């Protein structure tokens, strides 16, 4: 099949490369000329494990190409995916759909023959109706069907998630879309049969409901962690104890500094706004958002408490800046609020991240960037582990301690065991456990 991907960011590039790997002819389009030129030179503009090899293999086989020429890419396509950004709209928290609607207008002008238009971006319920209206208004002759096919991949595990999904949700309003969607996902459909066909509005809402549920699950275990700290219980054992119940499930029960990233924060906010618009407030989601927002700064205060309440003039080393490991994505990373809280309290911050330093510099300009974890520990009064990169899992704690002014370790991801940190001489604080 001839597949065109509009938007070559985290989702568009990964999906495009995976569809090419399934044997389809894929053209990835982006407005960003520098991004397309880099991709044409074989440079991958984002850090995502395995993506460089996947792109290289499929590009050299001629199945994956990159262009700024949207009209030509759309005109030759059997199926066009829209994978542009849907960030929070400034001011009100609704999803900003301007990129989706602009893409719909561009597609409408360029489309030739019967074409399936698929929204892969995360969009509020009812957006497919508006996309269809825009296309018909822009080009009444266009022979298209508009489908919702939300994406469930995670950054850092994107290729694996795309190729081995728990399910693929496809929302259609016109049966002509069904065989085309089955064909484009054929390798997955044949092996696992995880395609779930629904109405378009249901598919759109399913995406938000899934992300909100996961965000609530994380927030729940974070609150239980706080209670564990007060009562002397151990949150990891609680998580293991409840997660073993299949009705609950063991995943997304890792306590930490609050969820971040390009999706949970903006999607929970957009879902809450949709609920309010329809007169159906989603109070669990609204509360989740409020708790998570407060938690990030509360983690900054936890660090200050580890410094005996005196941050002014102290140096804090921060390990990990991205919102999770194995990505260079800094969007809504908890590190931003944590570091801001520390700086507001008068601390000096030295930080290191294996892949996120360039993106971090764009959002955190009052930080000293270091060469390594050991460099970040140099001269520090306290070291904070914010993102659980594998590189931070087996640090030489004795060496770290010797580099620091005072051996205080705040482990916001429970990477170390309290007894090993204490044996190395640290005053050690983690999340939801005392020992
Ligand atoms: P991104 O910002 O990394 O990429 C979006 C790309 O679209 C950018 O490169 C931008 O230049 C391009 N673009 C914007 N308008 C365009 C247009 N009219 N024509 C061509 N290109 C255009 O965003 P992302 O993280 O890939 O997210 C895309 C969508 O997928 C969002 O709705 C997001 O919520 C959803 N999503 C993201 C993830 C994730 O892990 N990042 C996972 C699932 C779903
Ligand atoms: C998330 C979802 O997991 C994907 O299914 C979805 O497609 C994507 O959002 C999206 O819609 O864009 P992602 O944001 O890449 O994926 O990463 P996650 O692994 O879900 O982590 C999100 C945040 O939650 C991170 O800050 C992470 O540290 C935090 N988290 C996750 C926890 O604090 N505890 C956990 O147990 C799990």
TrEMBL record:
Keywords: NAD, Oxidoreductase. This is UDP-glucose 6-dehydrogenase. Its EC number is 1.1.1.22. Pathway: Nucleotide-sugar biosynthesis; UDP-alpha-D-glucuronate biosynthesis; UDP-alpha-D-glucuronate from UDP-alpha-D-glucose: step 1/1. Pfam families: UDPG_MGDP_dh (PF00984), UDPG_MGDP_dh_C (PF03720), UDPG_MGDP_dh_N (PF03721). SMART domains: UDPG_MGDP_dh_C. InterPro entries: 6-PGluconate_DH-like_C_sf, NAD(P)-bd_dom_sf, UDP-Glc/GDP-Man, UDP-Glc/GDP-Man_DH_C, UDP-Glc/GDP-Man_DH_C_sf, UDP-Glc/GDP-Man_DH_dimer, UDP-Glc/GDP-Man_DH_N, UDPglc_DH_bac. Residues 317-418 form the UDP-glucose/GDP-mannose dehydrogenase C-terminal domain. It is an enzyme of class 1 (oxidoreductase). It catalyses: UDP-alpha-D-glucose + 2 NAD(+) + H2O = UDP-alpha-D-glucuronate + 2 NADH + 3 H(+). Signal peptide: none annotated. Belongs to the UDP-glucose/GDP-mannose dehydrogenase family.
């Amino acid at each position: 099949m001839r597949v065109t991907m509009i938007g070559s960011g985290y989702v568009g590039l990964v999906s495009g490369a995976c569809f090419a790997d399934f044997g389809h002819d894929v053209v990835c389009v982006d407005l960003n000329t520098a991004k397309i030129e880099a991709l044409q030179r074989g440079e991958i503009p984002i850090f995502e494990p395995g993506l460089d090899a996947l792109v290289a293999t499929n590009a050299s086989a001629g199945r994956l190409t990159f262009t700024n020429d949207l009209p030509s890419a759309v005109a030759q396509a059997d199926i066009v995916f829209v994978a542009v950004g849907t960030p929070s709209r400034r001011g009100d928290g609704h999803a900003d759909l301007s990129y989706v609607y602009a893409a719909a207008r561009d597609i409408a002008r360029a489309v030739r023959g019967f074409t399936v238009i698929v929204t892969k971006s995360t969009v509020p319920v009812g957006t497919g109706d508006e996309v269809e209206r825009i296309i018909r208004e822009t080009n009444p002759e266009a022979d298209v069907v508009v489908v919702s096919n939300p994406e469930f991949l995670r950054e850092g595990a994107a290729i694996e998630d795309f190729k081995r999904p728990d399910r693929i949700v496809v929302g259609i309003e016109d049966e002509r879309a069904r065989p085309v969607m089955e064909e484009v996902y054929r390798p997955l459909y044949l092996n696992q049969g995880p395609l779930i066909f629904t109405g378009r509005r249901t598919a759109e809402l399913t995406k938000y409901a899934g992300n909100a549920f996961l965000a609530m699950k994380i927030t729940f275990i974070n609150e239980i962690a706080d209670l564990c700290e007060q009562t002397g219980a151990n949150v990891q054992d609680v998580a293991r104890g409840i997660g073993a119940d299949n009705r609950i499930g063991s995943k997304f029960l890792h306590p930490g500094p609050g969820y971040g990233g390009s999706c949970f924060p903006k999607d929970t906010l957009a879902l809450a706004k949709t609920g309010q618009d329809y007169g159906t407030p989603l109070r669990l989601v609204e509360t989740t958002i409020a708790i998570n927002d407060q938690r990030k700064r509360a983690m900054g205060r936890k660090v200050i408490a580890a410094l005996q309440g005196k941050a002014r003039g102290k140096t804090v080393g921060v390990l990990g800046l991205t919102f999770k490991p194995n990505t260079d994505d800094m969007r809504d990373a908890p590190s931003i609020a944590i570091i801001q809280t520390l700086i507001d309290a008068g601390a000096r911050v030295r930080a290191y991240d294996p892949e996120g330093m360039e993106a971090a510099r764009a959002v955190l300009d009052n930080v000293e960037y270091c060469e390594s974890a050991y460099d970040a520990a140099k001269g520090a009064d306290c070291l904070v582990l914010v993102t659980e990169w594998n590189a931070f899992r087996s640090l030489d704690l004795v060496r770290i301690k010797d580099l620091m002014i005072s051996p205080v370790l705040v482990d916001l991801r429970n990477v170390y065991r309290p007894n090993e940190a204490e044996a190395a001489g640290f005053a050690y604080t983690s999340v939801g456990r005392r020992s």
